[in-house]
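Re: that chain you flagged

S.,

Sorry for the slow reply, it's been a week of failed gels. I finally had a moment to sit down with the sequence you sent. For the record, here it is as I used it:
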Amino acid sequence: MVRIKICGITNLEDALVAVGAGTDALGFVFAPSPRQVTPEQVHSITSRLPPFIYKVGVFVDADMEEVQRTMSYCHLDIAQLHGSESPEFCQALFPRVIKSFRVKDDSVLSLLPRYKVSAYLLDSYDPHLAGGTGKSFNWDIARKANSLGYIILSGGLTPQNVTEAIEQVHPYAVDTSSGVESEPGKKDHAKVRAFIQTARAGQSLPRL
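Prediction finished late last night. Pasting the structure tokens below so you have them in one place:
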């Protein structure tokens, strides 16, 4: 079954719409971004969510103390690391850690096994952005990565292409942010519902 994460949540209304539509996880960005939120904002949101929703904190090169303090205060389940965090840094957070990799070419496949994490998130490469590019990448690389661990597919996913992504990659999970926005930091509720409904419809596809 393909899991679904809606990332870049900045307010309770968007969070509850995603939860009501059936998302498995919500992502909160603590790094500089149009979607950046404060720990206080996230604490307020997560304290009003129903149970069984996975809450993910997105960090970029934050120090360990900041990551652990934020996770505790905001009631987060897992840290998603988008910077140059070392394998040792990631292992110190294991199993509550996802490592993101920006995919420029298939050389990324040699990097993944160095990291002991619960899942690898594969995102599009942009020299100026750590994530949230709104662009897709060569999904053949993500498909090959399936043999290395649990793969979360990100980068340019929308209601229009998520079925094709699932068919081609068969990832553990799909992750979207800008693909379901009306503007940076604000979700388009119709797009959120359409993305989740479409991804759910694609999860029964046979695994090759």
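What I noticed first: Residues 3-202 form a domain with the TIM Barrel fold (CATH 3.20.20.70).

Talk soon,
D.
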